[in-house]
Design a protein that fits this description.
Blueprint (H helix, E strand, L loop, with lengths): L6 E2 L3 E10 L2 E8 L4 E8 L6 H9 L1 H5 L11 E5 L2 E7 L2 E2 L11 H20 L12 E4 L2 E4 L10 H7 L9 H4 L6 H17 L8 H8 L1 H7 L13 H11 L12 H7 L29 H8 L6 H4 L28 H27 L14 H4 L1 H8 L7 E4 L2 E4 L16 H9 L4 E2 L2 H9 L48 E3 L5 E2 L28 E2 L2 E4 L1
Parallel strand pairs: 13-15
Antiparallel strand pairs: 1-2, 2-3, 3-4, 4-6, 5-6, 7-8, 8-9, 10-11, 11-16, 12-16, 13-14
């Protein structure tokens, strides 16, 4: 077993053991040749026979030529004794199903669409994955990227069946029986991944088809095209993505992938080659249970569906509402939602009333010359000292209803753009600043965010003195959710999600807090991430604004 501190193949210094997965172990290592940290996959010995090993090593140039934002690019491959190793760019673990955690249907649609777009590019180039699992999908520079394409061709059936035994539900029946991977196998795996997200079962569940049918009948009918056991009748991955997007009634927004736009708009979805030899499979028969009375509006929407790959082409899930990753930045001059003038009218009236009361009291006190006072005054008519605090409070700008009072500062209660909406991410520090300035506010300081998190009692976490799993959207490497979605994740100051969901830009250019995807626990006094390069954008970093009262 490779240990931390070891040097592999005379080239890689192993720095951390990231994950142990079926068929391989993922390590974080320093590549001494490029002086770069990389992800090093040590493939399980015995998976590749000599012929398969020679074939894989001989195909490295073709595999490295696979370049797409949705594909985790294979940088190198080599041997170390009985083991093979593969090198990929270092990435974060992507969203994975967890026991009991059910992902909303619209998030499943976005995940499947991004992965399908990447796999389709590989299929066009002649490569398939063959054993796609949810943990083969990672986050790299804001994109969901698929790793492992091309690695599992011609593996030994016995060792492969043993390696993937615990997760064999994700593997197409023909591949389990020893057939080589094909695009059809990837369609099966993609459908099973979607099912595992929908039912909250990391292993796919014992009967995912029945479980999905019970909870999401429309999605079950769409996924059935990927679960067809007759390989010749199984749909392609991009057909599957369009089917479930349509079933979930979520527009599939996308950018160009070869031939996809024409197929999507014409309704002639391509059936990829399902045979190892490469010949075209016959077109599947029409849906035996078509909608007898289609909605004209829905029919028109389907005609305009664009290929779902655009969410990968511009940074995963730029479509609003798709997992919250890389939401398109708002322009600095974009019209902002109007804020109600009522709080200001009420606040102004309150200020005027208190100021008038202060004047009356000052006059009366001045006439008597015997005011007792409660501050540092001596009760000899120095009324200005007596009422300094009251006057300062009354004349201060009142926090509006969407902001909480934290000491002398107003803080957005929710991550921008507000309650019940996915936080805006994929935005640079300067863009976040301009957005706040457009509201006559500013980015919060680290101290202000930490105070908003800890509340007046100085709690270690917003909900109390000790960590509670599930209270905030942290510690799971899960999905970014809508602001305010975790009801218990609110501090005594009334600020929501200041621990987790998305990390947040700070006025000094650092990044405060943790996010749903980085594995942090959301402690209020956690050190910020260092300031990144100018213009940097992150899929899990958003912002909220502050204002001086």
């Amino acid at each position: 077993m490779t240990v931390v501190g070891a040097r592999l193949a005379g080239r890689f210094d192993v720095r951390a053991r990231l994950r142990e997965l079926p068929g391989y172990v993922e390590l974080r290592a320093l590549d001494l040749e490029s002086d770069t940290e990389v992800s090093l996959w040590c493939l399980e010995p015995g998976l590749h026979g000599m012929v398969a090993r020679d074939t894989l090593l001989g195909e490295i140039d073709r595999l490295r030529a696979l370049q797409h934002k949705g594909l985790r690019r294979l940088l190198a491959i080599g041997e170390d004794g009985a083991s093979l190793w593969a090198v990929y760019p270092l990435a974060q673990a992507g969203p994975e199903p967890r026991a009991g955690h059910v992902m909303p249907a619209e998030q499943v649609v976005a995940w499947v669409g991004a992965v399908a777009a990447a796999l389709d590019v590989a299929h066009v180039a002649g490569w398939s994955h063959g054993r796609l699992l949810p943990n083969d999908v990672s986050l790299l520079r804001g994109n969901l990227v698929v790793g492992g394409v091309g690695l599992w061709h011609d593996v030994e059936p016995g060792p492969a069946a043993q390696a993937w035994r615990a997760l064999e539900q994700f593997i197409a029946p023909e591949v389990r029986d020893g057939a080589p991977p094909t695009p059809a196998a990837d369609a099966w795996s993609l459908a099973m991944c979607a099912a595992s997200f929908l039912v909250g079962a990391p292993d796919g569940g014992r009967d995912p088809e029945a479980a999905v049918a019970e909870r999401h009948p429309a999605l079950a009918r769409a996924l059935a095209a990927g679960w067809v056991r007759d390989v010749e009748r199984r749909c392609s991955v991009r057909d599957l993505a369009l089917r479930i997007a349509d079933a979930a009634k979520q527009p599939a927004r996308a950018a160009a992938v070869p031939n996809v736009a024409e197929a999507a708009t014409s309704g002639k979805l391509r059936v990829v080659s399902m045979r190892p030899g490469g010949e075209r499979a016959p077109t599947p028969e029409p849906d035996p249970d078509p909608d007898p009375d289609p909605d004209p509006e829905e029919t028109g929407r389907r005609a305009k569906i664009r290929p779902i790959a655009e969410t990968v082409g511009r940074g995963f899930a730029t479509a609003p509402g798709a997992l919250g990753y890389m939401a398109p930045p708002r322009a600095a001059n974009e019209t902002k939602p109007r804020r109600s003038a009522m709080p200001w009218i009420v606040g102004g009236a309150l200020v005027a009333a208190i100021a008038a009361a202060v004047v009356i009291v000052v006059v009366v006190t001045g006439r008597s010359g015997t005011g007792t006072g409660t501050g540092t005054g001596t009760g000899t008519g120095s009324a200005a000292v007596v009422y300094d605090a009251a006057v300062d409070t009354a004349l201060a700008r009142a926090c509006t209803s969407e902001m909480a009072t934290v000491g002398a500062v107003c803080v957005d209660r929710y991550e921008w753009p507000g309650e019940g909406r996915l936080p805006q991410t994929g935005i640079s520090l300067d863009e976040a600043r301009r957005s706040c300035e457009g509201r006559q506010l500013r980015l919060c300081t680290l101290a202000e965010l930490q105070a908003a998190c800890a509340g007046p009692d100085g709690g270690a976490w917003p909900y109390g003195p000790s960590f509670e799993r599930g209270a905030c959207n942290v510690g799971t490497r899960g999905m970014i959710g809508k602001a305010g979605g975790f009801e218990r994740c609110v501090s005594a100051a009334g600020v929501h999600d200041v621990a987790g969901n998305v990390a947040e830009w700070v006025a000094d250019g650092t990044i405060a807090g943790c996010s749903a995807v980085d594995g942090g626990d959301g402690r209020c006094d956690a050190a910020p991430r260092p300031a990144p390069a100018a213009g940097a954008r992150f899929a899990d970093v958003g912002f909220r604004c502050c204002g001086d009262r």
